[in-house]
Amino acid sequence: MAEVLVVADDLTGANAAAAGFARAGLRAATASAADRAGLVAEMVARFDVVVATTDSRHADGATAAERVAAVVRAGWPARLVCNRIDTTLRGNVGATTRALLDEVAGLSGSRVVVLCAPAHPAADRHTIGGTQLLRGQRLEETEVAHDARTPMRTSDVAAIIRQQADLAVAGIPMSAVTATPDELVATIRAALEEGAEVLVADATTEAHLERASTAAVAAAEGLDLVWVTSDPGPASVAMARALGLEPRSQGAPLLAVSGSATELTRTQLQQLATERGAHLHRAPTCGDSPVPDTDATARLLDSAFSDADPDDVLVVATVLTESDLHPVTPTQAEEIPRALARAVRRTLEVHRVDGLFTTGGDVTAAVLHELGSHGLEVSDEVVPLAVAGSVVGGPWDGLQIVTKGGLVGDAGTTVACLDQLRTNADVHRRQVTSAQSRTPY
């Protein structure tokens, strides 16, 4: 189940909507679903928010409605379903709103009501008295009145909806939006009791959208009612917050892998434990051999990850203290990184990590080989000879990574590397992905 399913009528709008959810901390993806609604079903388990574009803004109303219904069916169930409409209300606003309402009602078996709040304050789009304003002017007084395919002849939001759909539309005026929370809830509850199917909310600020959404959720308490939204994006984000929707993943631990026996590396790992609370684990070996026991190391990591919190840093190293140092033959020197890398791969097959740190050139090469990587996409140099980037190719394509040599930096360098890795991982998790189907077609 996706937290949020958004149906957008064009690609740029879909991307903008996804970006809004990403800024709110939800992992969002866009998907082109005009003729492949089934793609959405593949995406909902992988992302918090799936924004499917139907490319239907300039299609006829019936076609637009059919595409909306197909996407909702493919993406159902979702905790919130949204109809992403144009900020200037061009296209099939009424037809798609109707289709969304009907499809969710049929799938949920509940009464469905649409919160339509078309304001986008950051883009200078406001709704006052049920009238949509573009930079302070009514739509029919702006350039969209001369749009070649969908010229806007009115800025009355309810009238625009009714042009294409027979819906019971009620307004939430600015006087109600800015009233006390109890008064706003009472206004919405009264409209629901009178049979409203669509509530058009005035708003000139993000706070107004938050107030309207929060009150809508409160007004529906105790009713068998499902809210959906029809808006350019900000009101949908506000509704998601009001419903208490949160990222399914708050992040995952970082894994640091060390195959370096240098004194500097040992100092750096101890500093990491002291300053960032990293959990240090020495890789178990086969008897007196310095070569890690792959099975035992994988079990050790499995246990560590099972007990870890998302913000933890887990370290597996061949050497942590001077007492771990033993003579190593050339053959063993080749086996050590390979055995450690195999244990890392097994761990990543069953546990998610937000990022990977490797120290020691041989270990880095062995780990990348085990992960089936073609190489690294380097994005930055944390310190000289320590680089940050992402894995390229293989099952872990895109995994954030920082790597450095065993003799690189000073006592605080590994701390700096892990801090950079966490920052990069957090940014990467919030990025909007253009989802691709896993099914050949």
Name the CATH superfamily assignment of the largest domain: Putative sugar-binding, N-terminal domain
> Which stretches are poorly predicted, pLDDT < 50 over at least 5 residues?
435-441
Tally of separate helices = 14
CATH topology of the largest domain: Rossmann fold
Mind telling me which CATH architecture of the largest domain this is?
3-Layer(aba) Sandwich
Strand order of the largest sheet: 9-10-5-11-4-1-3-2-19
Tell me how many strands there are: 19
- The pLDDT mean sits at 93
Structural class: alpha/beta
CATH class of the largest domain, named: Alpha Beta
**Integer count of domains:** 2
Q: Main β-sheet: number of strands, strand sense, barrel status?
A: 9 strands, parallel
Distance between the termini: 24 Å
- Rg calc: 27 Å
In percent terms, what proportion of residues is strand? Answer: 15-25%
Estimate the helix proportion, in percent. 25-40%
Overall 3D form: elongated
